[in-house]
Amino acid sequence: MLEIIKIKNRTNWLITFIIGLALIVCLFIILIIVPLISAEESYFLSIFSYIIKVIPFAGFFTLLLYFWLWNTFGKTILNIKSDSIIITYKNKLFTKPKTFDKQEIKKIETIDLRMESYKFGVRYHFSWTGATYSVVLADRNRETRIVDWITEKEANEIVDKIKKEWCWN
User: What percent of the chain has pLDDT over 90?
Assistant: First the structure.
């Protein structure tokens, strides 16, 4: 049996607005400003000059588009099968689905990331909505966070669905 769980990202509208404006400005620079600057007498040199000058702006545009798409329309889709779980990130550029086999996973748990320890110290996170929880798959040598920044109720529901599908207690 296949269970599909879709988790929508929490959209930060301020970031969506600011990055949207930056995308428009970057596109204006690429399509209007750079062609005017790179126009030369020789047509071949003009094209070559345009390509060289537009590469940094195109890279910056792609990076902004990556963040804007994920923040605005991003979804995490969990396909839970009887022997594996496939995690797909919809509207996130340059990512491919990740597959985890049931035999490799030792435990599935919910963790609270209000206080997150990492190798350089402690990082504190604050959320008005309480969306500081994460669903974690622990295998032989590491823990992998599959869904981040959700509420405790949502995280527990996801863990319960996975355990129910895999017949774990």
Answer: 56
Per the model's pLDDT, the better-predicted residue between 47 and 90 turns out to be 90
Q: Which helix (H) or strand (E) holds 78?
A: strand 75-80
Q: Which string of b and e fits 58-86 if b means at least 16 CB within 10 Å?
A: eeebeebbbbbebbbebebebebeeeebe
Cα dihedral 122/134/94/89 (nearest 10): -170
**Per residue in 46-58, pLDDT tens?**
788 888 999 999 9
Determine contact, residues 114/126, Cβ cutoff 8 Å: yes
Is the pTM higher than 0.85? The answer reads: no
CA triple 147-68-74, angle to 5 deg: 30
Our CA dihedral for 85, 91, 92, 98, rounded to 10 degrees, sits at 10
79 within 8 A of 88, measured Cβ to Cβ: yes
The label of the residue with tokens 């295998």 reads 139
CA 52 to centroid of chain Cα atoms:
30
Give residue 1's pLDDT band: very low, low, confident or very high (50, 70, 90): low
Instruction: Identify whether the C-beta of residue 26 lies closer than 8 Å to the C-beta of residue 93.
Output: no
